[in-house]
Backbone:
């Protein structure tokens, strides 16, 4: 059988999503269900998270269809009945989605997305929805920490070559820009998402020339508006002297060297020496850009040491979120057929019902606390979840990435100062409303588990 299966196929999911769909089908179950995606707890060392990935989720839901090849492959597994497979022929997602906008800061237990749809549809999309939201959220949250430590210096995503696959390379460029990076080195991400693209050169370019100075000059003349020269292939300070001499010659041709790049060794000390060489030659305008296994901790240390570095290329440690590579997140049923549902598993209990978070701000604009409650139970503050899809159609055009980026910048600036630090801080206050606690008791009574433990301090 000839197949044309892409990463957007509905078969990109866990087998059990389909076996549950078949079982629901056999039992005639397809009433409306609500599932919510949330994070149970923050990773060690994190004080906040940033919601990201919603745009990719909505695009996935909008275009979710089964091709003849998809259905044929499902048939080959032997797990599915012919009537069930026929029911997939005209499938489309017909549900509603409420979500926090991309760029919104959030905390444990707060849903950042809710899917309300016939249960077969809502169940099917679980794995891919989690996959998209989890990855971009964890990268955006890491990138935001780097941006905080950079204190306004240029930041470029350098992560493609060590990303865990092509999609990760693309989405990490998007998520890092949303969280405050200046741009990306990944060309296709820049073109697709409207992110500024930056590039320098590799050591191989210098090595391919017999003379380092000639390599610098050839590149600068080839890229007169984009000349960042990598000077540490052999001897960093010697390379800086060669750039200073070259810059003087190029100036006569109207060509300007934009910056030099450091990628190895003691970046702070090299930057100081290179800065002195360039300044001594009268080239204070030539910037210094640093890269090489950087993260928020190394960027903080370089900035606090006063290293004269104007920008950073950050890749592997950011787009793999190296120190916290996953979130303890979940996509859980909270309502089915009009009744509240919740899980009581030890250490993984969930809050029932369709929920909303309200955020309060102090007089100075700083976040002061959130309340987790039920949809329709109005509380003081700003509601964070917003409708974004009704009956399988978006409620508005896609939000520009720049708009989401601006929201992220506003949200990060509104965090209490202690939460913007890299040091662990006291948890941000998220109160649980009486209405939600009461619904949890009702759900327990409904399932015959009333009285099985405390209703406070639960994690989903």
Residues:
């Amino acid at each position: 059988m000839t197949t044309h299966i892409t990463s957007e196929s509905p078969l990109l999911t866990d087998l059990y999503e389909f076996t549950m769909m078949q079982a629901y089908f056999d039992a005639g179950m397809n009433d409306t269900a609500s599932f919510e995606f949330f994070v149970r707890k923050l990773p060690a060392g994190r004080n906040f998270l940033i919601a990201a990935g919603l745009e990719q989720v909505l695009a996935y839901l909008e275009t979710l269809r089964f091709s003849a090849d998809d259905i044929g492959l499902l048939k080959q597994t032997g797990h599915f009945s012919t009537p069930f497979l026929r029911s997939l022929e005209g499938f489309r997602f017909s549900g509603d989605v409420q979500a926090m906008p991309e760029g919104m800061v959030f905390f444990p237990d707060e849903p950042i997305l809710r899917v309300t749809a016939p249960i077969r549809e809502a169940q099917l999309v679980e794995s891919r929805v989690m996959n998209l939201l989890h990855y971009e959220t964890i990268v955006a949250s890491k990138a935001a920490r780097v941006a905080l430590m950079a204190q306004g210096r240029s930041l470029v995503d350098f992560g493609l070559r060590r990303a865990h696959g092509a999609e990760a390379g693309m989405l990490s460029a998007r998520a890092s820009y949303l969280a405050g990076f200046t741009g990306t080195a990944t060309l296709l991400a820049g073109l697709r998402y409207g992110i500024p693209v930056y590039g320098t050169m590799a050591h191989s370019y210098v090595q391919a020339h017999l003379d380092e100075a000639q390599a610098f000059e050839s590149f600068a003349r080839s890229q007169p508006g984009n000349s960042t020269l990598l000077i540490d292939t052999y001897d960093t300070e010697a390379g800086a002297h060669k750039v200073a001499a070259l810059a003087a010659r190029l100036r006569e041709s109207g060509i300007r060297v934009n910056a030099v790049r450091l990628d190895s060794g003691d970046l702070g000390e090299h930057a100081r020496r290179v800065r002195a060489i360039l300044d001594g030659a009268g080239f204070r305008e030539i910037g210094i850009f640093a890269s090489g296994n950087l993260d928020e901790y190394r960027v903080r240390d370089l900035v606090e040491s006063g290293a004269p570095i104007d920008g950073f290329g950050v890749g592997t440690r950011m787009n793999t979120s190296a120190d916290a590579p996953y979130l303890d997140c979940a996509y859980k049923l909270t309502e089915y057929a009009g009744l509240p549902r919740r899980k009581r598993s030890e250490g993984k209990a969930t809050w029932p019902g369709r929920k909303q978070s309200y955020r309060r701000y102090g007089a100075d604009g700083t976040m002061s606390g959130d309340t987790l409650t039920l949809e329709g139970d109005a509380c003081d503050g700003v509601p964070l979840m917003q409708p974004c899809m009704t009956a399988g159609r978006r409620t508005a055009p896609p939000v520009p990435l720049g708009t989401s980026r601006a929201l992220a910048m506003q949200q990060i600036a509104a965090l209490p100062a202690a939460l913007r630090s890299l040091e662990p801080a006291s948890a941000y206050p998220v109160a649980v409303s009486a209405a939600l606690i009461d619904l949890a008791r009702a759900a327990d009574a409904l399932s015959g588990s009333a009285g099985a433990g405390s209703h406070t301090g639960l994690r989903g």
In short: Residues 15-139+333-447 form a domain with the nicotinate phosphoribosyltransferase fold (CATH 3.20.140.10). Residues 15 and 124 are 10 Å apart (CA to CA). Residues 451-460 have pLDDT under 50 and may be disordered.
